[in-house]
Amino acid sequence: MWGKSLLISPILKPDQRSLSLYLPEGEWWHFEYEQSRPERLTGQHVIKTDMKSNIPVHVRGGTILPIQQYVLRNSSKEDTRNLSLYIFPEHGKAFGEFFLDDGLSKDTIKNNLFILYNFSYANCSVQVTKLGNTTWNALTTTLMDVYVFKAKTVTNVEINNTTKEFTLDDKLNVLKVNANMELKEITSITWADKKNGCQMLA
């Protein structure tokens, strides 16, 4: 386990093509970005056989997972970060957080050179709150995309009450929101059907 939300199953042998891993009770998702899928068997050992491309990573249901997009740079100091959010609701709720500092300075918490973003999902709405130095501008973080799993019917998406473009995969029930906004400016992400209702899979 890495924290309380990620289960990472390392490959320990060269050319290993299968792996037996234990999934605790509850809802777990085999993480493959927007292609993530729910695991049907939990509370027991499961066998993974497709080991050619990725180490198995599972996300616990009820998690909002921020993923920073990796960019190779010539300089050791970054001036921007691009972020995606992956939302895996369980029983209609999900939570997550993202800690941000410049990656270089010492004693960032003591010197208040950080921002901690908290994400909370319920009823087709994500609320974003901030702790720390909310006026700190040492690093720009852009929220590029938001992926919401279990989405059923969506006709409108808004960020801070401004309409945003989106796509909905009807087969995987994944809503993709094209955010492309500075994270520090975002307070809410909401979506609804044509009757302004919230339709999500259980």
Give a description of the structure.
This protein has 202 residues and is an all-beta fold. It folds into two domains: 6-60, Immunoglobulin-like; 64-192, Golgi alpha-mannosidase II (Immunoglobulin-like, Sandwich). It has no helices and 19 strands. Strand 10 and strand 11 form a beta hairpin. The model has no long low-confidence stretch (mean pLDDT 87).
Give the helices and strands as they follow along the chain.
EEEEEEEEEEEEEEEEEEE
Shape: globular
Radius of gyration, Cα only, in angstroms? Answer: 18 Å
- What gap, in angstroms, lies between the N and C termini? 26 Å
CATH superfamily of the largest domain: Golgi alpha-mannosidase II
Q: What would CATH call the class of the largest domain?
A: Mainly Beta
The CATH topology of the largest domain comes to: Immunoglobulin-like
Would you tell me the overall average pLDDT?
Answer: 87
Helix content: under 10%
Largest sheet: 6 strands, antiparallel
In short:
By secondary structure, the chain is mainly beta. It has no helices and 19 strands.
Describe the secondary-structure layout.
Elements lengths: L5 E3 L10 E5 L4 E3 L6 E2 L5 E5 L8 E4 L2 E6 L11 E9 L4 E8 L14 E8 L2 E8 L7 E10 L1 E3 L2 E4 L2 E2 L2 E4 L4 E9 L5 E5 L6 E2 L2
Parallel strand pairs: 8-12
Antiparallel strand pairs: 1-6, 2-5, 3-4, 3-6, 7-8, 9-10, 10-11, 11-18, 12-17, 13-19, 14-15, 14-18, 16-17
Organism: Stegodyphus mimosarum (African social velvet spider)
Protein name: Sucrase-isomaltase, intestinal
GO molecular function, one term: hydrolase activity, hydrolyzing O-glycosyl compounds
